[in-house]
Amino acid sequence: VNLMSEFLQIRSNGQITLPAQTRRKAKISEGDLLEAIVEEDGSIRLVPKLAVDRALAEKYQLNDIAWAVKQKGKKK
């Protein structure tokens, strides 16, 4: 396992800067979303997330519901 450790300083407004090497290794760039998960022991895990267009997500949800209703109506 190739782990990398960096020390980050929290600025007065609560911001931190991820060093370029860390961003490259995590394959994240400006504008990307990160989910901050605070573990029970107080450690913080940052997880990259993809943004999904709300209209597109709703369309897929409606398609899923339509498919489920169709499946329920089929005879076994």
If you had to describe this structure to a student in words, what would you say it looks like?
The chain is α+β, with helices and mostly antiparallel strands and 76 residues long. 36% of the residues lie in helices and 16% in strands. It has a two-stranded antiparallel sheet. The N and C termini lie far apart (49 Å).
Fold blueprint:
Layout: H1 20-26, E1 33-38, E2 44-49, H2 54-73
Antiparallel strand pairs: 1-2
Distance linking N and C termini: 49 Å
Report on the biggest sheet. Answer: 2 strands, antiparallel
Order of strands across the main sheet: 1-2
Global shape: elongated
**Low-pLDDT residue intervals, each spanning 5 or more residues:** none
Give the rounded overall mean pLDDT: 86
Condensed summary:
This protein has helices at 20-26, 54-73; strands at residues 33-38, 44-49.
Keywords for this structure?
alpha+beta; 16% strand; 76 residues; two-stranded antiparallel sheet; 36% helix; elongated
